[in-house]
User: Which sequence fits this backbone?
């Protein structure tokens, strides 16, 4: 059971990590492909996105907990008992 919870936490962590990392990497790739910036700056932007993704995922994990965070994100108010009162 612990292995399943561990795998679910990895999936949640990667879900939070991938958002800023992918956005920064796509922007860096787009700017580099248009010859707007050099390769070193594009790599620096990509690394900044990866670092921001790690920081954000660890912040959410430590402050809220990954399962609680995604539980709040995916909350469906029409089936929540507290919203019916």
Assistant:
């Amino acid at each position: 059971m612990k292995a399943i919870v561990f795998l679910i936490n990895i999936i949640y962590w990667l879900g939070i990590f991938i958002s800023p990392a992918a956005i920064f990497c796509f922007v860096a790739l787009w700017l580099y492909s248009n010859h707007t910036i050099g390769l070193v700056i594009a790599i620096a932007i990509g690394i900044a996105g990866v670092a921001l993704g790690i920081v954000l995922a660890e912040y959410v994990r430590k402050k809220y907990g990954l399962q609680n965070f995604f539980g709040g994100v995916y909350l469906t108010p029409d089936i929540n008992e507290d919203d019916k009162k």
Notes: The chain has a mean pLDDT of 88. The CA atoms of residues 27 and 45 lie 8 Å apart. The chain is about 75% helix and 0% strand.
